[in-house]
Amino acid sequence: MRAAVLREYNADLSIEDVADPACEADGVVLRVLACGVCRSDWHGWVGEHPRVKPGQIQGHEYCGEVVAVGRDAKWQVGDRLVAPFILACGACPECQSGNQNICKTQRLPGFVEPGAFAEYVSVPFAHNLARLPESLSPVMAAGLGCRVTTAWHALTGRAAVQAGEWVAVHGTGGIGLSVLLLARALGARVIVVDVVAEKLAHAMGLGAEAALDGRNGDVAARIVEITGGGAHVSVEALGIEATTNASIECLRPLGRHVQVGMPVGHTAHMQINMNAVYMKNLALFGTRGMPSWRYPSLLDMITRGAVDMTPLIAREVRLSDASAELRAFNGPTSPGVAVISDFAG
């Protein structure tokens, strides 16, 4: 099969012919129909993700058609499926308690094992997969794979956002846009922060009540002023120190900060304003991925038209364009995300 292989950090991926993946007993092999290009892929591409090594086929936001089924998997050849990027075992105490996204024996295509920057991908623990609704395109489904699922769990499974609450979003990339769209669908009022004028204007067009340039003044103080006391929930979507502190400091007393941006490599350790946490009795939530059992609630929101996620997808690209998309994360990016839909080009 054709695949884009990481051979050297910060260098173009190598487009190669590699062996087709084997099907595991509890898994399936998918013909990849679409795969998103995510900032988490970039962390691996630059060498800051501790699990991503040269030789890796990246790509963890995928949708595909079943071409092979293991003896213990329930799916059939021809089924169109979408997967969370964390594949949980289903048997450990964490999984049994409903917290599959912290499964201790989780499998991670795209990070540890071959991912979906390829024509085919092997998916173990296939009970994590969900059937793709007929009304949802593979490209849209791939866009859900990491950013939207993570945003959904951050808002509903961690912060428990309520209608009428103020939600601040720091960073309007794929995660930030997903938080904006989903929070508004839940009835929240949203303020976004970024440093790219085009992205701020885009967010306003999608229903943000205010859009602040993070380079202009004390963003946290401005959010407190606009919201009449501070945001109820603030989501950090970049994984860097400045926006994490702004997220904490913009909250009202008893507010909830959700850390969605990945602090890894040089950002793994930060100086945080813990005095604000202490004085305002704040709650800090970490979140990564989404338990697979939560797919129906998210897919239902989308298929019944309660939320339109199409503004998230900016462009469809070829497999050979993946390197350029990864390189774009080196600086400020344009609105929306890229999805690979052509694996021959």
UniProtKB/TrEMBL annotation:
<dbReference type="Pfam" id="PF08240">
    <property type="entry name" value="ADH_N"/>
</dbReference>
<dbReference type="InterPro" id="IPR036291">
    <property type="entry name" value="NAD(P)-bd_dom_sf"/>
</dbReference>
<dbReference type="InterPro" id="IPR013154">
    <property type="entry name" value="ADH-like_N"/>
</dbReference>
<dbReference type="Pfam" id="PF00107">
    <property type="entry name" value="ADH_zinc_N"/>
</dbReference>
<dbReference type="InterPro" id="IPR002328">
    <property type="entry name" value="ADH_Zn_CS"/>
</dbReference>
<keyword id="KW-0862">Zinc</keyword>
<dbReference type="InterPro" id="IPR013149">
    <property type="entry name" value="ADH-like_C"/>
</dbReference>
<protein>
    <submittedName>
        <fullName>Alcohol dehydrogenase</fullName>
    </submittedName>
</protein>
<comment type="similarity">
    <text>Belongs to the zinc-containing alcohol dehydrogenase family.</text>
</comment>
<dbReference type="InterPro" id="IPR050129">
    <property type="entry name" value="Zn_alcohol_dh"/>
</dbReference>
<feature type="domain" description="Enoyl reductase (ER)">
    <location>
        <begin position="10"/>
        <end position="340"/>
    </location>
</feature>
<keyword id="KW-0479">Metal-binding</keyword>
<dbReference type="InterPro" id="IPR011032">
    <property type="entry name" value="GroES-like_sf"/>
</dbReference>
<dbReference type="GO" id="GO:0016616">
    <property type="term" value="F:oxidoreductase activity, acting on the CH-OH group of donors, NAD or NADP as acceptor"/>
</dbReference>
<dbReference type="InterPro" id="IPR020843">
    <property type="entry name" value="ER"/>
</dbReference>
<dbReference type="GO" id="GO:0008270">
    <property type="term" value="F:zinc ion binding"/>
</dbReference>
<keyword id="KW-0560">Oxidoreductase</keyword>
